[in-house]
Amino acid sequence: MKHLILAALLAGTSLVTPTAIQAETAQYIPLPTYRTGPYASSGELWWAGLLDYFRYVNEVEGGIDGVKLNYEEFETEWSPDRTVEVYERVKNGKDGSPLAFFFTHGTPATHALLEKAAADRIPLIDPAGGKTESIDGTVFPYAFPLLFSYYSQATTGIAYIAQKEGGYDRLRGKKIATLYHDSAYGRETQAAVAKLAEKYGFENIQIPVADPGNEQSPQWRQIRELRPDWVFLRTWGVSTPVAIKTAARFGFPADHIIGDVWAGSESDVIPAGKAAVGYQALAPYPGGSDFEIHRRIKAAILDKGKSDLRDPKLFGAVNYNIGLVNGALAVEALRTGYARFGARPLNGEEARWAFEHLTIDPARLKEIGFNGLLQPISITPTDHEGGGAARIQQWDGAKWVLQTDWIKADTDLVKALVAEKSAAYAKEHKITPRNPAAETDPS
Questions:
Q1: 219 is in which domain, residue-wise?
Q2: Are residues 298 and 426 in the same domain?
Q3: Radius of gyration over every alpha carbon of the chain, rounded to an integer in angstroms
Q4: Average pLDDT along the chain
Q5: Does the pLDDT of residue 11 top 60, yes or no?
Q6: 76 and 121 both lie in a single domain
Q7: What element of type H or E holds 245?
Q8: Distance (Å, whole) CA 153 – CA 186
Q9: Using CA atoms, how far apart are residues 34 and 16, in angstroms rounded to an integer?
Q10: Residue 184: what pLDDT?
Q11: Residue 440 confidence class, pLDDT cut points 50, 70, 90
């Protein structure tokens, strides 16, 4: 299979899933997947969850209001350049369907596509990722860092450390190190952590790890010398288990390391073995397969041999559940758009409206089987995040165990920082912020 993927990539062709729908009435959704390369351990499960949910919607629910999903894979190895190439190939749609939105599934790719997508009027969807100030839809109408932005991740992580230390006042004089993937993704929390350090009086230590992060002895030697009280781990792919194992080798306790969203899956801890026991991470996507949606997908997809998941033991793994949640966000946004514009494939402007009016309340979460797996979310033209909460989960050596209820981000700090950064971006790029109240309906 790997040879087929590479051959398709070199030939400039796409990989079409066996259940892709080829019909003019279907909504076209291209997927820049990464099943090979240093991030494949995450990508394999992530895309399996997404594809299983789309297959479930097509085969069990008959599509969304009768509109099927025509999804197509393109292998990128999480390369921003390849993701941009995919975008350019698919931005005009396919088989009679316009392109409603584009999943980037990678912060560097989102950064690379921001201006292109805005010019093309195609929404970029990057849940719990993207450029954080794009929460401000008045400056970034076509970028959606849905659910749990990087600034929210930073404030929630510090909130949990404060809980463990006995209150925010106990943070003064503490040392908190952030070990980060040296990319647009890894650097994205720096502004928020700097504000938090100023507010609560802790020492802010930032230590980069070059991609892909296979060797981290210098970084953990520095951590041993600086002796921080906590480490906020913002790694990705192979760099996360390497970090956990190297921390143990240098004597830093796993229960004082908190991983962010993209450093908190089975793919991150299982390869680290015993060194990962006690490790904690932010969990806007909890692990587990006892949610209602899992029961539905197991009966309709897994038990009938239709799943994209290669190892059934990983059904309900964190990365698989990320795929399910991202699929639900897309489907519910399309459903919102179809209710407004009619049950037919949407274009980018219509999909932007749909995402900006997406609301999934507790009653709807229960109806679609995501109660407890997905937090309630409400997107508006001025707020493209809409969630802003996470739980903390801890690895016990065999499974993730939730340690907290939902912890809300410091919304005042996040909003102020987003306003500052988005205003600077608007000035630099000569953008006049939109006034959503004065806009005409895309219909």
A1: 151-283+393-409
A2: yes
A3: 21
A4: 93
A5: no
A6: yes
A7: helix 239-249
A8: 12
A9: 14
A10: 84
A11: confident
Cis peptide bond prior to 381, omega within 30° of 0: no
CA atoms within 13 A on the CB side of 347: 7
Burial class for 269, CB neighbours closer than 10 Å (0-12, 13-18, 19+): buried
What is the C-alpha to C-alpha distance for residues 364 and 134, in angstroms, rounded to an integer?
26
Q: In terms of domains, do 248 and 352 share one? A: no
Q: Is the dihedral of CA 62, 378, 326, 315 positive or negative?
A: negative
Residue 256, CB-side half-sphere exposure with 13 Å CA sphere: 16
Give the residue carrying structure tokens 């290669």: 310
Task: Identify the H or E element spanning 178.
Answer: strand 175-181
Query: Residues 139, 117: one domain?
Result: yes
Quickly count: other Cβ atoms within 10 Å of residue 127's Cβ: 24
Task: Report the domain count for the chain.
Answer: 2
Query: How far, in Å, CA of 389 to CA of 382, rounded?
Result: 18
Ranges assigned E (strand) in 197-237: 203-209, 230-234
Tokens of 12: 């400039």
Do residues 235 and 301 both lie within one domain?
no
Cα angle 352, 123, 367; round to 5 = 60
Answer whether 125's CB lies under 8 Å from 103's CB: yes
Residues 435, 96: Cα–Cα separation, whole Å: 32
Please report whether residue 187 resides in a domain.
yes
For 207-217, what is each residue's pLDDT tens digit?
999 989 999 99
Gap between the Cα atoms of 431 and 356, Å rounded: 20
User: Are 320 and 362 found together in one domain?
Assistant: yes
Residue that is written with structure tokens 């066996």 in the block: 18
Q: Which residues pair with 283 in a beta bridge?
A: 391
Given the structure tokens 């971006």, which residue do they identify?
425
CB 280 within 8 A of CB 257: yes
Q: Compute the distance between CA of residue 73 and CA of residue 362 in angstroms, rounded to an integer.
A: 32
